[in-house]
Amino acid sequence: MNLHSLGFGQFFMSQIEDYEQEIDKIARVLAVHKGVLEVHNGEISAQARLPESINMQPTVGDFVLLDGLLDSDSLAVKQVYERKSLLQRMAAGNRSQVQPIAANVDYALIVTSMNDEFNLSRLERYLLAIQESGATPVVVLSKQDLCDNPDDYIEQVERIARGVQIIPISAPKKLGLDKLLSLLSPGATLVAIGSSGVGKSTLVNYICGEDMQKTQAISFFDKGSHTTTSRQMLQAANGSLVIDTPGMREFQPIVQAETISEAFDDIESKMPHCRYRNCSHTVEDGCAILKAIEAGDIDDRRWKNYQKMQREQDRRNQAFKQNSKLRWKKVHLDMRQRKKMEDRS
């Protein structure tokens, strides 16, 4: 293996200012702990400290420049290279804290099972986040062997995920896995996301090999059967890279208004046809949205999910503005205090 086998291609090569000085000090992030990164350069692994002055907070999948060779006794991160994609969400229970999930991902697998866990509104949220990230979404419908009507689930996903590849699978029965593996190639990176219990770890185990201790897995967490308690990167036998993630009970995507508009254009395209310009889409006569819901042209569940995401975005924007004001207030306070100290001296 080498750095290029970990996905370090031309996009990242173009960011190197001094090839001879930097190339042997570049590594990819496998896992992030408090103040420490697990990194690998395709040949050896190491731990690197994360200084407070870093240009951006790294996450699993990032490429970083270190201050020394990986076999050095002590390493620190000097720089995080620009990302070609970044999947992120709002931290659970926090309206203003952003939580990066994975960087430099080619494919994002949304794993959801064909049973009571299946939830179209949650699936729409995942799709929005991936669309914003720059990765290619793939919907993986698991537990096909336990489902009597998989076509019904596929049709429901097709209605909200136009143009997105949908792959029904059964990992225990090896159904649909060849189609999934055809997406993978040496150096390609994918991330698996979804709720707990949908079969993500089973799927990752299959991709990386049934007995992960006997594969080319590069994670520091290989200890028998693979279960996920934190985000981590693994390398499968075919050279593809897999980022597994813990189950997510809450998922609030961080998206631009344009992304929401594009994803819900079936709803927003009807709004100009309302009788009143300031229509609230609740009780007004002549409301094109209410008429479309009554006629079955817009699903009421989808409309409510759209409204919920709009409210979340408004609250998020307000929280960001408030935090920005507090940061500037602190900066000005620090400046005044320094000036007072200088005047006294």
UniProtKB/TrEMBL annotation:
<feature type="binding site">
    <location>
        <begin position="142"/>
        <end position="145"/>
    </location>
    <ligand>
        <name>GTP</name>
    </ligand>
</feature>
<dbReference type="InterPro" id="IPR010914">
    <property type="entry name" value="RsgA_GTPase_dom"/>
</dbReference>
<dbReference type="GO" id="GO:0019843">
    <property type="term" value="F:rRNA binding"/>
</dbReference>
<feature type="binding site">
    <location>
        <position position="274"/>
    </location>
    <ligand>
        <name>Zn(2+)</name>
    </ligand>
</feature>
<dbReference type="InterPro" id="IPR030378">
    <property type="entry name" value="G_CP_dom"/>
</dbReference>
<comment type="function">
    <text>One of several proteins that assist in the late maturation steps of the functional core of the 30S ribosomal subunit. Helps release RbfA from mature subunits. May play a role in the assembly of ribosomal proteins into the subunit. Circularly permuted GTPase that catalyzes slow GTP hydrolysis, GTPase activity is stimulated by the 30S ribosomal subunit.</text>
</comment>
<dbReference type="InterPro" id="IPR004881">
    <property type="entry name" value="Ribosome_biogen_GTPase_RsgA"/>
</dbReference>
<feature type="binding site">
    <location>
        <begin position="194"/>
        <end position="202"/>
    </location>
    <ligand>
        <name>GTP</name>
    </ligand>
</feature>
<feature type="binding site">
    <location>
        <position position="279"/>
    </location>
    <ligand>
        <name>Zn(2+)</name>
    </ligand>
</feature>
<protein>
    <recommendedName>
        <fullName>Small ribosomal subunit biogenesis GTPase RsgA</fullName>
        <ecNumber>3.6.1.-</ecNumber>
    </recommendedName>
</protein>
<comment type="subunit">
    <text>Monomer. Associates with 30S ribosomal subunit, binds 16S rRNA.</text>
</comment>
<keyword id="KW-0694">RNA-binding</keyword>
<keyword id="KW-0342">GTP-binding</keyword>
<keyword id="KW-0699">rRNA-binding</keyword>
<keyword id="KW-0547">Nucleotide-binding</keyword>
<dbReference type="GO" id="GO:0046872">
    <property type="term" value="F:metal ion binding"/>
</dbReference>
<dbReference type="GO" id="GO:0005737">
    <property type="term" value="C:cytoplasm"/>
</dbReference>
<keyword id="KW-0690">Ribosome biogenesis</keyword>
<keyword id="KW-0963">Cytoplasm</keyword>
<keyword id="KW-0378">Hydrolase</keyword>
<keyword id="KW-0479">Metal-binding</keyword>
<dbReference type="Pfam" id="PF03193">
    <property type="entry name" value="RsgA_GTPase"/>
</dbReference>
<feature type="binding site">
    <location>
        <position position="287"/>
    </location>
    <ligand>
        <name>Zn(2+)</name>
    </ligand>
</feature>
<feature type="domain" description="CP-type G">
    <location>
        <begin position="95"/>
        <end position="251"/>
    </location>
</feature>
<feature type="domain" description="EngC GTPase">
    <location>
        <begin position="103"/>
        <end position="249"/>
    </location>
</feature>
<feature type="binding site">
    <location>
        <position position="281"/>
    </location>
    <ligand>
        <name>Zn(2+)</name>
    </ligand>
</feature>
<dbReference type="GO" id="GO:0003924">
    <property type="term" value="F:GTPase activity"/>
</dbReference>
<keyword id="KW-0862">Zinc</keyword>
<comment type="similarity">
    <text>Belongs to the TRAFAC class YlqF/YawG GTPase family. RsgA subfamily.</text>
</comment>
<dbReference type="InterPro" id="IPR027417">
    <property type="entry name" value="P-loop_NTPase"/>
</dbReference>
<dbReference type="GO" id="GO:0042274">
    <property type="term" value="P:ribosomal small subunit biogenesis"/>
</dbReference>
<dbReference type="GO" id="GO:0005525">
    <property type="term" value="F:GTP binding"/>
</dbReference>
